[in-house]
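Researcher: Please translate sequence to structure tokens.
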Amino acid sequence: MAVLPAQFASLEPFAEWALPSEFDRYGKRIESSMEDMQAFYDAAMPALESGTEYLKGVALDGISEEDRNLVWLFCSLVTVSFPIEAWRQARVPDSGASSIDVVVEPGP
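Model: Translation complete:
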């Protein structure tokens, strides 16, 4: 069963990045190797523009599970973009919280 919309089937191997919360996405980033993040980034970044255009046509009321997963997958792409594009490493020394143990997700 597909987790993502059919036109984004090429991203199915990275479906585990479709995580619903910032806390979950940060945890996945911290637990992932640079190689895993790079593979995800390399696959998802080229699909970002077409994915954004596709999602502009999706109504949030009654959004399908596949479309919601695509949104979350692109949120994870943002989460890995700094380690890939700017830092070129998974963790930046002396930058504050570097483990999921100390992260607190803000409440409503």
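Researcher: Any highlights?
Model: DSSP finds three helices and no strands in the chain.
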